[in-house]
Amino acid sequence: MAQRQRFLNYPEPLKGPEVPYENERGSNPAISGVFLMIAANLMEWFRLLRELIWNNTGFGSLRKIIPYIEEYEPWFEPQIVPLPEEVDKEPLQNEPAEEDTKPDAAVFYPEAKYYSVEDYRKLYLSGAITPLDVAEALLPLIRRDIQNASEHSIAFFQVRTERVLASAQESTLRYQEGRSLGPLDGVPTAVKDEYDMEGYSTTLGSPNVYADSSTNKTTSWCVQQIEAAGALILGKLSMHEFGLDTTGNNPHYGTPRNPHNSNYYTGGSSSGTAYAVAAGLIPIGLGSDGGGSIRIPSSLCGVYGLKPTHGRLSFRPGPNHCVTCACLGPIAADMSSLAALFSVISTPHSSSPFPPLPSPLKIQLPTPDDAKVLGIPQAWISQATPAIQTLVNTLIRTLVSKHGYTTVPVTIPFLQEGQIAHAMTVLTDAATLLPEYKNLTYANRILLALGRTTPATDYMLAQKLRRLLMQHLAWLWEQHPV
User: Fold this and answer.
1) H helix or E strand, kind and range, residue 432
2) Is 149 exposed, middle or buried (CB count within 10 Å of its CB: 0-12, 13-18, 19+)?
3) Which of 200, 160, 192 shows the shortest CA–CA distance to 273?
4) I need a surface site. Which of 93, 197, 429, 474 has the fewest CB within 10 A?
């Protein structure tokens, strides 16, 4: 029987203190337009005003819990690396290799709204369509540089038509000659403007150009992997400026609306990726997540997103600009497509401490005999609005009554303070990277002003609280190992 997985840098399982939830955070006024502009300038000019807003936001609340966290060591980068298991698992059964056959094309047109990676693969193998057909159909929908550009083009920050067509032609030829590169060959995809890609600009959704398309020779590791797999990269996707908020609103390059309801945001900061997948333009795309930037837009757009283990996906050859929180990750139209993409981009970089994952990844659904346990922090849920409580509790009841789950009550201390600690950490990290900010949006100038206000002592308190929370979660998983 295999022993429990071991990890490098795993937190010591240690129960946190039992404390009641408190929500004493102040409410800063909601402002827009000229008032937002005035507020941003005033906060940059007057430190006293910055400190007032900083305290009213609740950033000073960590000082109240010093007696609980003072003995904890700060934890800055939460990278937990799995180690080889001490007892090998039973070997997986070999599956027959996929054949480049050309079966009847008619059986492969999907009835669902979205084409998956598997759908494209079958259509290409059958000869019903080619990657070049797909490229020629999609380019008029996503290009900004044509007359009467479609609404979909807002999600695409930059498209290099010649590169896309050349890639599609190469993939088409590979299929015609029976030498396709695998499941992603010819599958349309795109990448968030946080990744570097040779021949494309990198702006991170801002007016600043960090890599110019005419001179950029750098390609991020994850993009290299999907290129090597033959994926048809359509271009770079829009994002919230510097990923500093979760709406997806971008006054510089345009804001993609939620494809299910144009009166709503997609969520952010991986707004373009979520839009392109949810609109059915691509089945897979690359995003990033430091505080919900994959999970929030995936949720709001009704698609699948994954914030992986911290450090699993490499930022190389560039740096991780928010190494305390940020991860790269996939967004997809369905779970199988997400697994197919993650199988490729999780290939470890030479500098990575992570071992390779099994490839291709397989989705293992729980069997009726598997224990399925939900930990329910009811005291925390009860602080939500009645509508949200109804949604959450209805989901829990459905999982229990129809899917065989059981529930156990759990408590997690300092959840409100944990939110504060996370926001403080992200904004302080961002403030150290953006000393020049006059050309940024006024909303982000206010956030960066708050980041510059954080004392080093409070930043350290946030990292001490991170360790407390990680140790408590490790303790919970020890108590409820399933």
Assistant:
1) helix 415-433
2) middle
3) 192
4) 93
What does the block give as tokens for 105? 């094309």
Which residues are CB-neighbours of 383 under 8 A, at least 6 positions away? 21, 23
State yes or no: is 150 an active-site residue.
Answer: no
The burial of 87, by beta-carbon neighbours within 10 Å (0-12 exposed, 13-18 middle, 19 or more buried), is given as exposed
Q: Which residue type occupies 291? A: G
Which tokens in the block code for residue 234? 């359509």
What is the sign, positive or negative, of the torsion defined by CA atoms of 271, 473, 67, 74?
negative
Residue of 229, 274, 227, 212 whose CA lies nearest to 248: 274
288, 293, 336, 343: the catalytic one is 293
293 is catalytic: yes
* φ/ψ (deg, to 5) at 36: -65, -40
Q: Residue 113 catalytic? A: no
Which residue among the candidates 192, 236, 307, 464 is catalytic per the annotation?
Answer: 192
DSSP code at position 153: G
Instruction: Return d(Cα 277, Cα 113) in angstroms, integer.
Output: 11
Q: How far apart are CA 446 and CA 150, in angstroms?
A: 33
